[in-house]
Design a protein that fits this description.
Elements: E1 2-3, H1 7-16, E2 21-25, H2 45-57, E3 59-63, H3 68-75, E4 81-83, H4 95-115, E5 125-128, E6 133-136, H5 143-155, E7 161-166, E8 169-174, H6 180-191, E9 195-200, H7 206-209, E10 216-221, E11 231-233, H8 239-252
Parallel strand pairs: 1-11, 2-3, 2-9, 3-4, 9-10, 10-11
Antiparallel strand pairs: 5-6, 6-8, 7-8
Bound molecules: ligand L263DTV3.
Length: 257
């Protein structure tokens, strides 16, 4: 992997970015640090300010695993595009297909209540997101056995979901639901942008990285797991530095990092 702040990374970014680039960001672990409770995320004001400026200069998108309404309430800025549920919610032109997903997810929620009786779901948080759902086990008294119980329950769901593991979470999506990679490609089409910068930290972001699309500049946050991304931002705390660099590049055509 190539460090984004290395000479090679800076030079690649400078060569890639132009006035018609779409800048797309994951939320948890990327724009905000990971915290123990999903409801407790807080976006740093320097990151917020950086996104406001970037959005005034270029097309921006947030593509998150959260629901759109949840993400919108927490961002403090308005990107041109806000896609939720790992790519399944809010992609322009895909509203009808997305509505089909709601029934499947509601059926899983009902089944899980039976598959995971109260004593087996202690400490497990079911995050209802409409088009997908997330089962968090970070706060279970024994996270490993809670995770095992979750996996057994997920195997019994009908229809079978697509399972995407995350940070102390299992995310369930209907098979065939658009993922983050498909969402980003669709945003490229509708925005008229010629290429896209994308940064994310988690397994769900690999759907973008694995596209291996030359129109996409793929950046992974953190080097703690295998990734198909070519570039690395070592620490989430460096996000405001990165936003400054992108803004400078758009304004002056030079990358200061
Ligand atoms: O695609 P993302 O924007 O990165 O969303 C992925 C999931 O993020 C959230 O869960 C994760 O972050 C929480 C807050 O830091 C943390 O407590 C949890 O352990 C992480 O898994 C969110 O709650 C999920 O809905 C997203 O799918």
């Amino acid at each position: 992997m190539i460090g984004l702040f290395s000479a090679e990374g800076r030079s690649a970014l400078r060569a890639f970015v132009n006035a018609h680039t779409l800048f797309a960001f994951d939320l948890d672990g990327t724009l905000v640090p990971i915290v123990a409770n999903p409801a407790d995320i807080r976006i740093d004001t320097t990151v917020q300010d950086g996104m406001v400026v970037l959005t005034s200069l270029a097309a921006t998108a947030v593509i998150t695993g959260r629901s759109r309404s949840d993400a919108a309430a927490r961002l403090g800025f308005t990107p041109r595009y806000l896609v939720g549920n790992h790519g399944a919610e809010g992609v322009p032109g895909q509203e009808a297909e997305s509505r089909e997903l709601l029934r499947t997810v509601a059926a899983w929620e009902r089944q899980l209540l039976t598959l995971l009786p109260p004593q087996r779901r202690a400490g497990i948080l079911l995050e209802r997101k409409g088009y997908s759902l997330s089962l968090h086990y970070r706060h279970a008294p024994e996270p490993r056995s809670a995770h095992a119980a979750l996996l057994a329950a997920i195997t019994a769901l009908t229809p079978p979901p697509r399972r995407v593991a995350g940070k102390c979470v299992e995310n369930l999506l209907p098979l065939g639901a658009p993922h983050k990679g498909e969402a980003l490609v669709r945003l490229l089409d509708v925005s008229g942008c010629v290429n896209a910068f994308f940064i994310g930290d988690d397994e769900t972001d690999e759907d973008v990285f694995r596209l291996n699309d030359p129109r996409i500049f793929p950046v992974c946050v953190g080097a703690d797991r295998a990734t198909a991304a070519r570039y690395l931002l070592e620490r989430q705390e460096d996000m405001s530095l990165l936003l400054n660099a992108l803004v400078t590049l758009l304004r002056d055509g030079a990358v200061e990092m």
